Amino acid sequence: MASLRDVLGRVLTVPGVQATVLVGREGLPIELAGRGDPRFLEALGALGASVLGTAEALGRELGQSLTVGTICEYDHALITVEPLGDFAAVVTLAESAASLGRVRHTVRASADELLRLLDAR
User: Under DSSP, is residue 86 helix (H, G, I), strand (E, B) or coil?
Assistant: First the structure.
């Protein structure tokens, strides 16, 4: 059986992806994968969870029922935040928007497996 890190590692195979973090909705890291200081990865996850909370609040104000994902695009970076059930999210850091489609596909294709692994903990 694959581990959480193994499943997150699939996202790292997408060209341009530097890091991916499985984080609880409260911002605490569950699993980290990627290149860089672990403290940076923890901050990425915590801030990503905060972005997701804000996006969900905005969606409620707009009368929308479900946040599918959040994308933050910068000059030389792209952050995606994908909800994973009611209690977790996957935050990914990539170099540019060129990898957006593959990142989102890979995370969504792995969602059920990640949820099963979380339930098994």
Answer: coil
Q: What is the CATH number of the domain that holds 73?
A: 3.30.450.30
Name residues whose C-beta falls within 8 Å of residue 4's C-beta, 6 or more positions apart in sequence: 22, 30, 31, 114, 117, 118
pTM above 0.85, yes or no: yes
At 46, which amino acid appears?
Answer: A
Check if the beta carbon of residue 22 is closer than 8 Å to that of residue 107.
no
**Mean pLDDT lowest among 5-9, 28-32, 96-100, 102-106:** 96-100
Decide if 83 contacts 37 (C-beta within 8 A).
no
Confidence (pLDDT) at 58 = 96
Domain that holds residue 34: 4-120
Residue 13 to residue 31: CA distance in whole angstroms: 17
Q: Which two tokens stand for residue 25?
A: 């909705």
d(CA 37, CA 56): 29
